Every structure is written in structure tokens, then in C-alpha cells.
Amino acid sequence: MNNNSEINYAQISCFMTSDAGFTADNILSLNRSYDDRMLSESISSQTGARLWIHAYSGKGNVSVDADTNIPAQVTTIGGDFFYFHNIPLLSGNYFTDDPLNSDHVIINESLAWQLFGSNDIIGKDIFINDVPYNIAGVSKDIHGENQAANPHIYMQYDVYQKMDNSVFISCYEVLLPNPISDFALNIVKEYVRLNQMEHEIIQNTERFNLINTFKVLSNLKERNIKTSKVLYPEWENTARITEYKLARLLSIRIIISVMMFTVLIVMIIVYRTNISDFFEKTVKVIKTKAKNTKIAKAIEERRRKEYEKKEYH
Fold first, then answer.
1. DSSP assigned state of 298
2. b/e for 182-217, b at 16 or more Cβ within 10 A?
3. Which of 23, 70, 179, 226 suits 138 as a labelling partner, its CA being 20 to 30 A distant?
4. Domain for residue 65, yes or no?
5. CA geometry: angle 31, 34, 36, nearest 5 deg
6. E strand or H helix at 299, and its extent?
């Protein structure tokens, strides 16, 4: 999308609670707002490619296969979810958010083995509420820390909503042109009009650079105090853990650098007299040795002869 383009992009994530009331109508409104804004800012694509993409997702639970009744977690997805989240696949392919793919799902390795005893199951069906869903791909398990992987399914948001109307959009993501700093972020903040306690907007672009790591390090206490009711999805929790680890490593590097600099200053202060004496003695020794070398004596002899010739003439 951004290949051979002079337009910079920024990825923005918005995390919401069920009380935020963020729905498909909000997404349609955002779509129109983005298009109008790009037009007003004279931002266009030279190749006719899309100027921006977005995705949204939620969480749910189902029981798979009436015979075995296996409980599985569901990530309900919409838009270009798999552009934002490159879920590792063991086999098969991603599916697009399209009515033609409404019966397509991706299941994880754990569920595949419980149902079929294999990962080579592309094209087979799983049954949820006696309705068949075609397996488009098998993803690698996502393990929590010291935890076994749970059965997991990726399916279209609209399809799951028909089974459970209590599902809500908990994550909205968009990739927008960002010609100047925070341009995209400010657009999303302007158009996503939700209660401050019910949502949180984060810019992911350059999230792990040195400047942002310094900011994280300076706000570690504040980051541990949540002011919103938002529950982060696993990918945001992973990103925040990475930020924390980078901040800790940066603090260790700073401490080590300060210690090394302090030791160097102390050594210079304590040993500056000795260092000065050492250099003076060294210079004297070098001069003395230089005078006593054969070359020095030869030079002195040549100068003496030249002087005698001048005196003779």
C-alpha cells in the first residue's frame, strides 16, 4: 500500500468496553469521515490503491461439536484484520471479511488435534449449534505464561453476532496517512467520540523506538494505574509487556553508563597527580634515551663537522 509512496502512515488502535457502545454504525461513520478528510487535505493515491484500511474485533465463546462439546474462545473479526495481525498458520489460508466467506473459520492447533487428531484438515467442517463452518486455516497455539493453549476460533464478527447478540467491538484499528506528526492520531481522536473512561486510543507507529521507551520509563508508575475500564486483547498485552521490558533494559543501560562515567571521573581525580608525574617521567626518559641513541650521536657528529667546516672557511 505504501510501496514507492511519499506518504507516511500511522497505525492507531482504539480499545473499548461494552459500555462504550461502539457499533458497526460508528465504523460506517468513520469510513465516511476518513474519505472526506483525505479529500479536504488533498491526500490521494497515484495508483488508485486504498488510502487507508481498518479492522475491528471482539471476544466470545462457543461450544464446538455437539458430541464432544468442546468449549472454545472466539475472536470475532471484521475489516482487514489479518493485515494487522499476521497470525502464524500451520496450514491453510486467511479468509476475507466477505459474505461469500461467512462460513469460513480459522481454528488453532489445540482445537484441531482435539477434533481431528491432525493439522491437515483444511476443507473439513466444525459444527457450532449444529451449523457447519468450513476450516480455512489452522493457526499456531498462543500460549500464556506457564499455561496450556485453549481451543480458539477466528470467525467473522457479523456471523458470530447472529449467535450471540451480546458481543461487542472491543478493538478498532486503522492505518491512516500521516503526513505530519500525530495527524492520523488526532483524526481518530476527533472522530471517535466516546466516554473517556470507556475507551483508550494508542498510536502503535514507532512505539518501540528510543524516544517512546524513555517516555515509558518516565511514566512506569502511571502505567500501572489504570484510569479506564478497558481490558486489552492479547496482542496489546504483548506490546505493553515488550514496552516494559525495553524500559527496564534502558534503565539498566543508563545505570551502567552512569556508574562507568562516575568511576572514570573518580579515577581521573584520584590519579591525576600520579598520571601527570608519570607522563613527565616518561617524557624525560624518552628524551634521555633519544639523546643516547646512535642516531642522535650521528646527528650530533654531523652537526659538529658542519660547524668545523664553517669555522675553517
1. H
2. ebbbebbeeebebeeebbbebbbbebeeeebbeebb
3. 23
4. yes
5. 110
6. helix 294-312
